[in-house]
Amino acid sequence: MELNLYTRAGELPEGNIKGTHVVVIDVLRASSTMVQACENGVERIIPVAGVEDATRLAPTLEKKNALLGGERDGRMIEGFDLGNSPLEYTSKAVKGKTLVLSTSNGTVAITQSAAAKELIVGCFLNLGAVVAHVLSSRPKKITLLCAGNQGRLSLEDLVCGGLMVRKISESFGGKLVLNDGALAGGALAGTMTDIGEVVRESSHGRLLAELGFEADLDFCSRIDRSTSVPVVVDGRISGEDACRR
Ligand code: MLT
Q1: Which tens digit of pLDDT belongs to each residue from 29-73?
Q2: Atom 3, ligand 1: which residue's CA is nearest?
């Protein structure tokens, strides 16, 4: 099996995604927010790239059940219902709702990966469940796509992807062919083992702390807090896919 890790969304060679199982990793915070929304009973998530994509979609949804969520520069988008802090996505806020989510990097990486055979949202919170899920379909090729930040590498995404590489390598019985990103991520995750520190010290972590989101850093650092595996089918995480366990 081929196991490839790309350290940021722009690094993925065009056409290389078709027919592969893709895990989009955006620890801070899009993936963590979606996993938390699933945990708390969201009915459907529609990840979109642009703010205008979200506002265009909103009037087509049943008003009382629709929520607009997301961020630009870490802050809630004007006129939206929620920002991108996973802690806002309580069961009171999201249960039974359709969430349209637009974030700077995470939802962009998801929409760019639409050609994947299976498209999964992963982070520290659901790391073990994602690995078990992706291996259960006996894939020929897995792509771990770190969203990064504005075209640059994000440490927390790389360490999370690296931990997935290590876990897949431990669990998979057959021959594995790793690209350089997977080798590098796996090695890094073997040395940077204090996940709380990784997330706090990362540049995105420091920025979020400055904006007052310290609690998010702690929350997003927790490994295997959730067994939800959000799977994007036809651009939506919905119905029984919303919280595959
Ligand atoms: C992203 O998509 O890059 C993140 O969700 C940004 C953030 O929450 O600060």
Answers
A1: 999 999 999 999 999 999 999 999 999 999 999 988 999 999 999
A2: 105
Instruction: Calculate mean pLDDT across residues 164-188.
Output: 96
Residue 200: is the preceding peptide bond cis (ω within 30°)? Answer: no
Q: Does ligand 1 lie within 6 Å of residue 4's CB atom? A: no
- Nearest of 96, 64, 101, 98 to residue 82 by alpha carbon: 101
Q: Is the shortest distance between the CB of 9 and ligand 1 below 6 Å?
A: no
Query: In the chain, what are the domain boundaries?
Result: 2-228
On whether the CB atoms of residues 41 and 90 are closer than 8 A, the answer is no
Using alpha carbons only, give the angle 9, 13, 17 rounded to the nearest 5 degrees.
Answer: 80
Task: Please write the tens of the pLDDT for every residue from 183-238.
Answer: 999 999 999 999 999 999 999 999 999 999 999 999 999 999 999 999 999 999 98
Give residues with Cβ within 8 angstroms of 107, minimum separation 6: 30, 47, 48, 49, 70, 101
**Predicted pLDDT at 165:** 98
Q: 245: which 2 tokens?
A: 């366990």
Residue 202 Cβ contacting ligand 1 at under 6 Å: no
Fold classification of 2-228 is: putative 2-phosphosulfolactate phosphatase (3.90.1560)
